[in-house]
Specification:
single chain; 256 residues; alpha/beta; 8 helices
């Protein structure tokens, strides 16, 4: 991680769970971390715990679905921090109901706008600044999409029980595709920017476990947020000629 000391990282969904663990890990590794979330108070609480570390933590209130807020956030990052070297797209929401539920249009839009459109808006703005950093300092940027095991398979429900899936797997399958599409676009643009998809199984305190009352989910083993953060650190620590494009991590005993 020495190569990342003093570099600038942007982490979306930075206020809780995986996002909070990522922010702590990157700050402790000496990075200048810009956390983004709609819940600035929770990010401020994280910042108050980060004393005696090598890096620092900036809290940016931002709804990634709002293009104007995204543009303003990256304008601030460029002016104050000088650019972006690492982007971690971690923000996401999960549907609580079925695709066929009545009056669920708002929830469907919220999921797609956050998990897909918001991710694309953030990535677009980050790449602009990464390309500038490359031109000015020869720095190679890295994008990490925190995906999900549900971005690779649909959970089969037991006949007669309520399906767990909803719109969430559709949005995460899109993230899997977007990761490869962006990789190809980065090559086309002549950059060496890397992009990685990290797909965890169930994680303690994550949206997939907090937003369900299903008994099976409660009983299954789960990863800790720090496990996912460790996987991200591993992926971004490879040599310049090595790309970890996709990494799936599961807790031992998971049967999704």
């Amino acid at each position: 991680m020495e190569k990342w000391e003093g570099k600038v990282a942007v982490v979306t969904g930075a206020s809780v769970g995986i996002g909070a663990a990522l922010c702590r890990a990157l700050v402790e590794a000496g990075m200048i971390v810009c956390g983004m979330s709609k819940r600035k108070d929770k990010m401020e609480a994280i910042r108050r715990t980060l004393f005696g570390v090598k890096g620092n933590f900036n809290c940016i209130e931002c709804d990634i679905r709002d293009e104007n807020q995204v543009a303003a956030a990256f304008k601030w990052i460029e002016e104050v921090c000088g650019g972006v070297d690492l982007l971690i797209n971690n923000a996401g929401v999960i549907t609580k109901g079925l695709l066929l539920d009545a009056k669920n249009t708002t929830e469907l839009y919220r999921t797609m706008e956050t998990n897909i459109i918001g991710l694309c808006l953030i990535t677009r703005e980050a790449v602009k600044l990464m390309k500038k950093r490359d031109e000015e300092k020869g720095t190679i940027g890295h994008i990490v999409n925190v995906n999900s095991i549900f971005g690779h398979k649909i959970h089969a429900c037991v006949p007669g029980t309520k399906p767990l899936n909803g719109m969430y797997p559709a949005s995460k399958f899109a993230v899997t595709a977007i990761t490869e599409c962006v990789r190809q676009e980065l090559l086309y643009l002549g950059t060496k920017i890397k992009i990685t998809s990290i797909s965890p199984g169930l994680v303690e305190g994550d949206i997939g476990t907090l937003n369900t009352s299903h008994d099976m989910i409660k009983l299954m083993p789960k990863l800790k947020p720090q496990d996912v953060a460790d996987a991200v650190l591993y992926a971004i620590s490879t040599p310049e000629n090595v790309l970890i494009h996709e990494l799936i991590i599961k807790p031992v005993g998971e049967f999704l």
